[in-house]
């Protein structure tokens, strides 16, 4: 996935996360753990499989 395509997804997921934390559905500590999990998963080879899956989903939605 190109950086230009990934940036809107990052922004949307970031906004959703902030709204969930503000609504107290998710506490700040849990949100921090979710962030760290995503950060470290992004540094593993699993990022390629996740990226391909997201591309497949987006391809199905736009086709």
Q: Concise description?
A:
The chain is mainly α. Helix content is 81%, strand content 0%. The chain is globular and about 35 Å long.
Radius of gyration equals: 13 Å
Number of H- or I-type helical stretches: 3
How does the major sheet shape up?
A: none
Order of helices and strands: HHH
Percentage of residues in DSSP E strands: under 5%
**Into which percent range does the helicity of residues fall?**
over 70%
User: How many runs of DSSP E, i.e. beta strands?
Assistant: 0
Query: Mean pLDDT across all residues, rounded?
Result: 79
Main structural class = mainly alpha
- CA-CA gap between termini: 17 Å
Task: Report the uncertain regions.
Answer: none
Gross geometry? globular
How would you sum up this structure, described in words?
By secondary structure, the chain is mainly alpha-helical. 81% of the residues lie in helices and 0% in strands. The chain is built from 3 helices and no strands. The longest helix is centred in the first third of the chain and has 20 residues. The model has no long low-confidence stretch (mean pLDDT 79).
SSE layout and pairing:
Elements lengths: L2 H20 L5 H14 L4 H17 L1
Keywords:
81% helix; mainly alpha; single chain; 63 residues
């Amino acid at each position: 996935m190109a950086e230009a395509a990934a940036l809107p997804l990052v922004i949307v997921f970031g906004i959703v996360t902030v709204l969930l934390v503000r609504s107290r559905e998710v506490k700040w500590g849990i949100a921090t753990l979710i962030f760290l999990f995503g950060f470290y998963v992004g540094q593993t080879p699993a990022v390629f499989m996740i990226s391909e899956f997201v591309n497949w989903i987006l391809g199905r939605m736009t086709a």
